[in-house]
Amino acid sequence: MATGLKLGIDANSPLITDGPNQGSPAPTVADPAIIADTGAGWVRLNFILGPWSAPEDQAIFQGRNWADTYRTIIQGLRGKGLKIYGLLSNEAVLGEPGDLFRRPPEALSADEQSRARGWIALYVRNFVTIVQMFHQDVSVYESFNEPDDWRGADRNWIHPAWYATMLQDIYAAVKSNPALAGVTLVSGPLQGLGINQNGAAGYLANTYQEGKHRFNWGSGAPFPFEGVGYHLYILEGFNANWPEQEQAVRQTLHDYVQGMKNTIRAAEGQDKPLYISETGWPSNGGHDDFQAQNMALGLRLLQDDPGVALAIWFSTQDFGGDRDNKYYGLYRNGPLTPDNRKPIFAAYQRFMQSVVVAQPLPAFTNQDLINAFYAAAEILGKGGWDLIIRAKLDNLVFNRKDGYIGPDIGTLPGLSDDEKMVLRQQLPGLPGPAPATIAITSAPLKLRAGPDAGQTVLSTLLARTPVQVLDRQGEWLHVKAGTAEGFINGKYVIYPHMNVPEGYFRNRPDLAKVPLAPPQTEQMNSAETDERIASTWNRYGGLLAVISSELKIDPAVAVGVMLAESGGRGAVNGRMIIRFEPHIFYTNWGKNNEGQFQQHFWLNPDPDKFWWDHKWRADANQDWREFHGNQNEEWAVFQFATTLNDTAAKLSISMGATQIMGFNYTGIGYEAVQQMFDAFVADERNQILGFFDFVKGPGKSAPGITALQQGDYNGFAATYNGTGQADVYATIIKNNVDLFYNQGVSFEPGQGLPIPAAPPSIKRR
Length: 765
Prior knowledge:
Elements: E1 7-10, H1 27-30, H2 33-36, E2 42-46, H3 66-79, E3 83-87, H4 110-134, E4 140-142, H5 160-175, E5 184-193, H6 199-215, E6 227-233, H7 242-268, E7 274-279, H8 288-303, E8 308-313, H9 343-354, H10 366-380, H11 386-390, H12 417-425, E9 437-441, E10 445-448, E11 457-461, E12 466-473, E13 476-481, E14 484-489, E15 493-494, H13 531-551, H14 555-566, E16 571-572, E17 575-576, E18 578-580, H15 582-588, H16 594-600, E19 601-602, E20 615-616, E21 625-626, H17 631-644, H18 646-651, E22 653-655, E23 660-661, H19 673-682, H20 684-696, H21 703-709, H22 713-721, H23 726-740, E24 745-747, E25 754-756
Parallel strand pairs: 1-2, 1-8, 2-3, 3-4, 4-5, 5-6, 6-7, 7-8
Antiparallel strand pairs: 9-12, 9-15, 10-11, 12-13, 13-14, 16-17, 18-22, 19-20, 20-21, 22-23, 24-25
């Protein structure tokens, strides 16, 4: 079996439901080789009652009861190495719910509500019964299939309020059973169709709203599913222009999947994996090659998307007639023989072989590797799930006992060299040694004789010293620096091609808990060093150290920038430090109100100096007043400008400790400049986070951070303040950094905060 960890196929209906052979496994699953030979890694199995009345029904059809029939199917598929994704929908209950759930509970009569809740209770009971029977072999289950389908009416078959109720009741029943703690629950798959323009996203948003309103989801109660089910059918009509089709599929698939991700993130404040349990293209009209081309493209896009946990091709075999548009299968209608395979069968096999992962390392199970990921994450201070997701190995949890089949640790995607090294160290006996890694210190670090703060200090490595990383023990790195060998703090070490954390710091709740100031015992003595350096560090150093260590930049640089911008303060006399820029206000408002602007604001007529010699007056009969350098005057002119245009005025001021211009609000993750202004006024912490977000941005790479990691102050100055004064600005930063280290500050593991180092004067180069 060729194993693509995230890809599978739908088994069609698994039971014959009528005729003399009712109760028999359907041909697609009766011989497990039918599906195994496709190369699929997963199979979606629908648990339907067929001729039985309940999962516990002991009636015998074809020599077996319901439970034994499904057990035979499951054992056959598992014996071929297939992983099983279970569907438990309305067919797992005797009797259709009809139209009971089309309207919200409040719109139903007392009798209708009673019948509706009775049906849900039976559905939940059967759901739990089936999971109890098979959870050892099937650990992932999705619930009610396509509740958002209209089924020929004018509204969804299941109103979002009822759907939220089903999800809530299923979750409560399953998770209350300790034996089922390892089961993953996926919400019933919703329809992302071309004809409904991805209606799934809107239906999901409404379900979240109902769940929050009725069951307190996210505010005291958990969201009752660990993944979101999704059906994706787009651009199914034949298009003879393949380049055009390919481009359209790429764009539409991205937009639809992103729409679902955005809905999840908006409701939960975090990401949650998508389980695409159906996707496909039909071959109706004889367009077999078109079907195969779309399959290879669509599955590749889903395979490569880290937000997609699973992608299932629909389906193993065609069904229905030509007018039904149901020819999605790898086999045509009829016998499941090689001569009845469609061209897509061979294309699907080839595609699965193209995503085959490396041969298993027999010494390790998936659980071994999961444990190693969690241990590495703890050492590195990461979230336990973060490393696994970035390495695209989150599907390991579904088959914990299986031998690991996956890339070599050294080739895992999404992980830094440091993270791979730590991961390898949690797997004793892994064949081959971890290669030595060359790194660079980003701050002065003590080189000690052993991995402990009490060990002898051998020397102090200057910032930007190359080191060869030999090993890691917790937060300590065993390194060679030239001929010297010892242990240093791993927090301030940069690895080649290191990415920065994605997302904005301002959205990180953990950073809201970090003390703004360092502990009293780790503050600088202003009598022994530059007073401005000491006061800035003592005010903000706690937060600066934490973020700097995460970005692998020198904390002294952040202090140096703050001193250059605002003297190291975010507020004076309880009011945020600002600088009002009339030339920016002119761009944002004055050019459309020329006469009024000239009455109140004076700009240097020299176009090369228009940012110099600013003056203002509140009344045209008053004398011009200078205001830069005086916070009372800066606020006076700013507040006057807000009476002319509040938004334009706030776009035209630099704010807080690092003097970020208001017009940069989107670049630091705010939706409006007013939101940025209010946040910066409310808390100096937001000013610090704003600085890092401005330099870093939301992505994985940032020229400003790279420049700071390399000690390139000119490069940083050009990025942060423009190229015009880059040399001057860089010199100011460098001088401030030298002052910071004038007392020989270095950084120690477990603290990330400065303490005196020896020798007594360590200058940066």
